[in-house]
Amino acid sequence: MEAAQQPQYTVSARKYRPQHWDAVVGQDSITRTLKQAIDQEQIAQAYLFCGPRGVGKTTSARIFARAINGFDANDQEDYAFNVFELDAASNNKVEDIRSIVDQVRIPPQQGQYKVYIIDEVHMLSQAAFNAFLKTLEEPPPHAVFILATTEKHKILPTILSRCQIFDFHRITVPDMVEHLKGICAKEGIEAEEAALHVVAVKADGALRDALSIFDQLVAFAGKKLDYATVAEHLHVLDQQTYFDVVDAVREAEVAKALLILDGIISRGFDPHHFITGLGAHLRNLLMSKDASTVALMEVTDDVKVQFSTQSASVDLRFLVRALDAVNQADVQYKGSNHQRLLVELTLMQLASFTEAEKKKPELTPIEAGAWSADAPPTKAPANPVPAAAAPHAPAPVSAPEPEPAPAAEQPKTEEPQQPAPAPDPVREKPKAPEVQAVPSLGIAAPSTLMDVAKPVETAEPATGREQPVTGEAVEKAWETFIMTVESEGQFNLHTTLKATTMGFEDSTITLNVLNQLQTEQIREIQLRLNQYFADQLQNDTLKLVIEMAELESAAASAEFMNDRERYDEMVKKNPKLDELRKRLDLDLLG
Fold it and tell me: What is the pLDDT of residues 454-485, one digit of tens each?
């Protein structure tokens, strides 16, 4: 007796390949358009399906080929004489295209159309494209061509103009998670939503990749998939790691943050992978600041709650500065000779931001793009006596006990003047210059304070710094910033800043650049420049304006001159030129 044959295993990508329009995931607008074209009998002679891998291009082409012929998806009959699939990667010669041109004239044996699906069509040679042009533009009425490609930019414009183009987009994480849930229900697999979310993120928008990863996980873990198992097997850093890192730097616990980083590296993770993940985590914290931007986070609902909880304790200014520091580390990582040190310095920077906020809570407000959920922190008048004692040496002796001291030293003449030091605690506004650490720039701030402070009439907390600023001070701060950029190794930016002229008038710092490229370079660091000038000059009211110099006006006017006018302009600049012309007995034309 023969042994029973075991059923052959089929991978999920083939087993659950969509056979009708409703099963296509994440391409609703395209499937709706194709269905309506079939219903209205508006079938074009050529279609181009383009988009990244694993998003349903070939699958949609097969469904479309069956639909226009009225074939049933469940019918196992072979329709090879109606639907032809060609791989252009291995059939990219002129002879291969000529064989299609010869076959296309023969009408179909069944149905109404013969459909030619050419996959990876961008691999065709230019000669093959040219041989295909005439047939693609005027095929027989029974022929339909469906071209599929992942690199649309490599296809000749003459081919593109003869096709209806459909751009397939990447599958979103929620759509992918819902599709995986349906497969789990059919296969009897228990899977946590967080685990499926990790699979969807790892697939990077390709549903076929997600199904391949899913099969691999089922083979590894069996019928039960939890978050920890999936994260370990896919070598993905879990979200809790980033929550712990942010908590550590917010408490200025540098040692704890460095130990977390060391544990990550010892587990085999690339520090660059950690820094990019930290940037995504900080971005999600920023999105959590307002209810309208929470939808921009591609995480599960329980993780959104965790993000909202942590973002409530994190200041908006810290998030913006931290994102800038992490982005700088990401840009500099590949060119760094000591990559781990670069990441460690970034964590130290984030911790220093927290210390700076504790000592100087009146940081420059973020004017553009501020989240409504985050209000600027108010400064409490804590420890007013030391602040007042700084500019007056004798004051600390009598300030803590105002009654006994004057009674012993000046019983009669000075007693009416005793209330005079009372307003000093209110003069807390000049306290801000005491802390001038700018960690991201590595620049020491001025150590001297202004001798004359403006009197404060009310006892309300200070909301900003308004120290007098001179053009010389602005120019000196600008030169220091240029040297700092050079020391950081940003040579392209340093060249741009050296070519930029700076002006100052009425609390406005104007940077004059030469072209649009320099404008974009400076706009990328505009937030950093605003904070830098405010910290160095102790003035939060300064404005930074970027202007492009109009250098092309003279060239534009010269462009419309005739030869005689150009010669006259040259003679004005150098009269000896006309003498030379006369000596050589030359005539002017025109």
Answer: 333 333 444 468 888 888 888 888 888 898 88
For 184, the domain range is: 173-233
Spatial distance between the Cα atoms of 252 and 56, rounded to a whole number of angstroms: 48
Distance CA 183, CA 160 (A): 37
Contact 223, 325 (CB under 8 A): no
Quick check: is 462 in a domain?
A: no
Tokens of 38: 């079939």
Q: What local confidence, expressed as pLDDT, does residue 357 receive?
A: 63
* Residue 121 DSSP class: G
Helix and strand element counts for the chain (H, E): 26, 10
Two structure tokens written together for 550: 């109009």
Separation CA 441–CA 481 (nearest Å): 8
147 in helix, strand or coil? strand
Question: Do 78 and 146 share a domain, yes or no?
Answer: yes
Summarize pLDDT for 102-153 with one digit per residue, the tens: 889 888 888 889 999 999 999 999 999 999 998 998 999 999 999 999 999 9
pLDDT tens digit sequence for 520-535:
888 888 888 888 888 8
Q: How many domains does the chain have?
A: 5
Q: How many Å separate Cα 85 from the centre of its chain?
A: 39
Distance of CA 396 to CAs 23, 55, 156, 425, Å?
79, 73, 82, 12
Beta strand 46-50 with 143-149 is parallel
CATH number of domain containing 504? 3.30.300.180
Domain boundary among 359, 381, 408: 359
3-state SS string for 49-102: EECCCCCCHHHHHHHHHHHHHCCCCCCCCCCCCCEEEEECCCCCCHHHHHHHHH
- Judge whether 443 and 480 are in contact, CB under 8 Å: yes
Same domain as 323, residue 249 = yes
- 27 plus 111 within the same structural domain: yes
Whether residue 26 lies inside any domain: the answer is yes
Q: CA 159 to CA 140: how far, in whole Å?
A: 17
Count of CB atoms situated within 10 Å of the CB of 489: 11
Structure confidence at residue 115 (pLDDT): 94
Count Cβ atoms below 10 Å from residue 462 Cβ, excluding itself: 17
Q: What is the DSSP letter of 377?
A: P
d(CA 358, CA 428): 15
Residue 396 belongs to a domain? no
Same domain assignment for residues 70 and 202: no
Phi, psi of 164 (to 5 degrees): -85, 125
Residues 92 and 178 reside in one and the same domain: no
- pTM attached to this predicted model: 0.57
Question: How far is it, in rounded angstroms, from Cα 267 to Cα 428?
Answer: 49
* Residue 306, CA distances (Å) to 303, 347, 455 in order: 5, 22, 46
Token pair, residue 408, equals 């012993």
Residues 6+ positions from 335 with CB-CB distance below 8 Å:
489
Quote the CA–CA distance of 134 and 188 in Å, as a whole number. Answer: 53
- Residue predicted with more confidence, 225 or 6: 225
For 7-65, what is each residue's pLDDT tens digit? 688 899 999 999 999 999 999 999 999 999 999 999 999 999 999 999 999 999 999 99
Q: Is residue 82 part of a domain?
A: yes
pLDDT at 387 over 60: no
Shared domain for 478 and 509, answered yes or no, is: yes
The answer to whether residues 199 and 157 belong to one domain is: no
CATH number of the domain to which 274 belongs? 1.20.272.10
